[in-house]
Specification:
The structure is a single chain. The chain contains 15 helices and 27 strands. With 651 residues, it is of the alpha+beta class. The strands form five sheets. Strands 21, 22, 23, 24, 25, 26 and 27 form a seven-stranded antiparallel sheet that branches. It has a six-stranded antiparallel barrel with strand order 1-2-3-6-5-4. Strand 2 and strand 3 form a beta hairpin. Helix 10 crosses helix 13. 35% of the residues are buried.
Amino acid sequence: GLGAPPPDEADPPPVPPPYTRSEGRSRSAGGGDLGSHHHHDDDMGADDEEETMLAELSTRFGSIVLLEVSYVEPDYLRPWQKSPQGSCTGSGFAISGRRILTNRHVVQDATDVRLRKHGDARRWRARTAAEGPDVDLAVLEVFSDEPEPDGTDDVESFWEGVRPVEWDASGPPELQSSVNVVGYPTGGRTICVTEGVVSRVDCRNYRLKTASAAPGHVIVIQIDAAINPGNSGGPCFDERGRVVGVAFQGLEGSDAQNVGYIIPTDTVLNFLHAIEGGRTYGGVQEVPFKWTSLQNRSLRKLLGMPKRSSGVVVTRVSPLAVREHGGEDAFLRENDVITHIDGRTLGDDYTVALREGELMNADFLITGKRVGESTAFDVVRAGEKMRVEAVLGPLPSNAPREHKMDCVPGWLVIGGLLFVPLTCPLLVYPSSEELEGSGYLKIYDYIDAEVHKYRSELGHESVILIDILACDANFGYYFRQSWRVLDTMNGVKVKNMAHLYNMYETARGAVSAKLGPDIKKAKKEARTGGGEPKPAKDLTNAGEDFLIFRFRDKSRIVLETADCMVSEGEVLEQHGIPEAVSANIVEQAKKEKQKEKEQEQEKDEKEKEKEGSKEGSEEEPKGEETEEGAQAKAEEGESSPAEGENEEGSS
């Protein structure tokens, strides 16, 4: 069981632990429903009971707030621009430490967040203090730039009468247990309560957009209470008034009426634990392997698996995770059969028992752990049983996943060719006719494969040509079907955007040194005076005069470097682009150059050491005497060993 964070001094006393199955008591024993009250045959009168219930409702609702959010989303297709401002509403609730918890997607890209308490018309400002995209959670803090006119603190006035919620940290609620979702859904400005039951406990991806880039599946609870837009971020209470989850998603359509999903308390508490003390949230423990089922009889025979054993076969392992945990011998590797995770038997379809009669995807045994907790894998490797234990963690994605978390919009314009790095935010735009016509679908399979891949080494990224901005330099290369994956420039494999920029800058520098500061005038004079660049003998690398871009589909674009330099200003002005390259790529390029410089210095130092050791070996001092040398010395009566004997002894 995961405990709740330590309560503040102002928090209510902790709730006694709930009864477990072994104690034979129901989790819902004692306590009332949020939306109604029931008469009991006890000493309490109906009036007293009603007053108590109203007081409890007032306390619970007092912790729930309406969020009014203004946001501006980035535009990764035109990375120098921003999308028009939008607005939305959501729900949130008070937790310990004077914080507000909500969904991350409610406050994503927020420029202004306002909070409104239940029963109060005033608004208070808030800002994001921490966010977890992979669990769709965010923590807000209330702040004020200046005191109220009467001198009181605006923040203090917000927390008057607000008490943090109580958590049920006993694990996922039982099936058919009653729950109530409270929030501010669309259709009104007042608080709304919907009632339902837990209909399923499952394991799925929380990412609302690029699902294929998820680090693994996380536990989710399905309920039959409606979760509508605006409910997101609101609490889900059990019959005792304790929070069992956070509303975050509903299904739309006639075939999925009254289907909603909540984030379970354990996942929420893991997130809050990860950000304790102001720590930056790094992500859930990531599943570091891909697998295939072990249901096929021939595959089981090949791997030597007994009939009654079960498990899954490892097909791929993260190279970064392998290196971090001591290599293949100390970690998982391809063709390992995982039979147990943390002692729980793994089915041939990668399921484990959550509770009696409830099977689910085994990812939650990894993604549901707190930072620093280890995972034990029982595996069969080449017929031998062994155990692998490791403390897992987040892994750098092959395609960066989240705006402002591991990527920001970046671009590089060379002769009207618009290059951007491959990121997940680039892929979330709807596939309109214009986008389809640009060649996006032509490289979809490559993009999908890259997103699914584990990153093999740091510092490498896919560079995508997403548009050709028409100008004189690129005339003849049409903008239709422009999406392509860059492979090389002038025969050199392109590692990342910074590498491409540095190569282009090197070519620009060489051409500037040759033609002078007025490139346009120098080209005109060269044309009349016969000083044009000569035809290249090597069509892979024509030197600095030409830029030869080769793409993974075997296509090629050739531009003259001087033409690119001349047309740059015109392209930027026509399309409203502030710079030919974004500031983040320039900064990365500087670091790459510095790194290369340090590597060169280190290489030179090693060469000098090697030369020094070589010179020392040529004038090698006398070594220790061998037994044979000492005996020969005694026999021959020499005062010093012979030259050959010294060399032999040294060697």
